[in-house]
Amino acid sequence: MADQKVVDYIKTNLSDGFSLEQIKQALIDAGWQQEEINSAIDSVNHGSKDIDIIAKQDRGSVNKKLVFVNIFIVIVFCLILGFFLYSKGSLKFNFIEPNPNSDIGRNNEIDCGDDFDCFIDASENCNPANLK
Questions:
Q1: Which stretch, 2-11, 50-59, 93-102, has highest mean pLDDT?
Q2: What gap in Å lies between CA 54 and CA 20, rounded to an integer?
Q3: 3-state DSSP assignment of residue 77
């Protein structure tokens, strides 16, 4: 009769994805006898030798879940990135039309002399000006 502690230990660790060899070695390191370990494995597996296949199937379902989670994360990331790129592309820049009466672009500055009001008017219209 297999010890229930060993049986529970094997079941738990198989479902956590450990291989049968890793579980056996851990039990041996803990002081369990080989006969007790084999009896517990037979009890868990109901006499079959396919226990590693069962463990691999459990790991496969975990791997499938991870794949779906990763795909979901990538899709969400792409949607967020697309939203920001679409938002930035749809922004319209309103450029200020140049004042046809200004001297900008002609490298001509308005010479205001010592007239401060002329200088203020030029700055309000974004025109280069000189003030003495």
A1: 2-11
A2: 10
A3: helix
Please check whether residues 114 and 77 belong to one and the same domain: no
Query: Are 116 and 101 within one domain?
Result: yes
| Residue 77 and residue 112 in one domain | no
More confident: 23 or 60? 23
3-state secondary structure of 45: helix
**pLDDT at 39 exceeding the cut of 50:** yes
Query: Are 66 and 119 in the same domain?
Result: no
Q: Are 80 and 125 in a shared domain?
A: no
Maximal C-alpha separation, the chain:
111
What stretches of the chain adopt beta strand conformation (E)?
Answer: 110-111, 129-130
Distance between CA atoms of 19 and 10, rounded to whole angstroms? 10
* Complete DSSP assignment for 104-125: TTTT--EE-TT-HHHHHHHHHT
Q: How many domains does the chain have?
A: 2
Structural domain boundaries enclosing 112: 95-132
Q: At a CB cut-off of 8 Å and minimum separation 6, what does 123 contact?
A: 129
